[in-house]
Amino acid sequence: MTDLYEASRLIVAHDAESLLGAVVPPIVQTSLFTFDSYDEMIAAYRGEITRPIYSRGLNPTVRAFEVKLAELEQAEDALAFASGMAAISASVLANVAPGDRIVAVRNVYPDAFRLFGTHLQRMKITVDYVDGTDPQAVERALPGAKLLYLESPTSWVMEALDVGALAAAAQRHGVFSVIDNSWATPVFQNPLTLGVDLVVHSASKYIGGHSDVVAGVIAGSKANVDRVRAEIYPYLGGRIAPMDAWLLLRGLRTLPLRVAAHQDSALEIARRLQQLDCVDRVLHPGLAPLPPGLRGTTGLFSFLFHDGIDLRRFCDALRLFKLGVSWGGHESLVVPGDVVLEQKARPNSAHEFGISARSVRLHVGLEGTEALWADLTAAIAAAR
Ligand SMILES: *Cc1c(COP(=O)(O)O)cnc(C)c1O
């Protein structure tokens, strides 16, 4: 509870410096900031004073979010983006050059996999995929690599990794490490304290928490964040809008309470699903001892039905669980694995990301455990 309390105090606290004592920081919805004098302008351009010039570089609402996120991740600095993918692509691009090799854990977020397989391939950067649950396999792949790309737990199949052990291996080989921490959130996992160099979040998920914003953020040492900033401000440009940063500030206020509620409901539902004779396997990190450094679990997991359950009828019979991608909001969601395997719109769709046609991914929202369980059991009965 100590961690939860500390985090709550930090993000619920009134921001004393805000305008007119406003309890919520204002949305500074402006593209540029004007100067009072030539001298002030030239001082800003020379870097002698730090003040906003243009919102692609620095905006007060965006900065307020970045400061809170950095504190939550125990980081020196943070930088917010227009999406999680903008955060991922900028973080990777700022740390590799043609001819480099990346080691990535298998079953990463599919669009990260697509970035590696298309854009990075054109830049002559190769990617080796390894089983992240096997630290020795990761260690064997590291010599000569430039970057270790981690996600824990991995997407869909939810392999929870020993992040500290993998980060230590990367350090032994002088390899820069990046982790996608969207699932655990800073409430349940702080990878920088486990030795990872840079943390990435899709803030569209739990950090936003209300399914009304697409955004991303990175956190790390000042030097590591500055290296990404040096590419995002002058030319990559995928920065977040002030309104979206304001929505993330709003989301942060309740993050510890929400993830605790997602944790309780999802774990209970995962345990009950495991008892059903129609369920083959439940892939939820909380059903086994958690790896060191992971302090809790959240609402997203998947499971596999045995043959004999009609996925189409199961999905159509659900009432509270809505068919939809993404996760991390108040609402419960379901994605059938066989539909994902049909995806044609994006490259590399043949790669299965560990997804089985009998599997289902659930996001357990905040509607209440018993109501959600009644919804699931009624839909299973309809699908037999
Ligand atoms: C959604 C997601 C992303 C991408 O984030 P966007 O905000 O949608 O660009 C990255 N990683 C994981 C694990 C995700 O679930």
Automatic annotation (TrEMBL):
GO cellular component: cytoplasm
Signal peptide region: none
N6-(pyridoxal phosphate)lysine: residues bearing it: 205
Entry GO MF terms: carbon-sulfur lyase activity; pyridoxal phosphate binding
Transmembrane segments: none
Keywords: Lyase, Pyridoxal phosphate
Claim: Transport is one of the keywords in the record: no
InterPro entries recorded: Cys/Met-Metab_PyrdxlP-dep_enz, PyrdxlP-dep_Trfase, PyrdxlP-dep_Trfase_major, PyrdxlP-dep_Trfase_small
UniProt-listed GO biological process terms: transsulfuration
Cofactor requirement: pyridoxal 5'-phosphate
A Pfam family that the UniProt record links to this protein: Cys_Met_Meta_PP
Family membership noted in the UniProt record: Belongs to the trans-sulfuration enzymes family.
NCBIfam families given in the database record: PRK05968.1 (NF004627)
Protein name in UniProt: Cystathionine beta-lyase/cystathionine gamma-synthase
Lineage: Bacteria, Pseudomonadati, Pseudomonadota, Alphaproteobacteria, Rhodobacterales
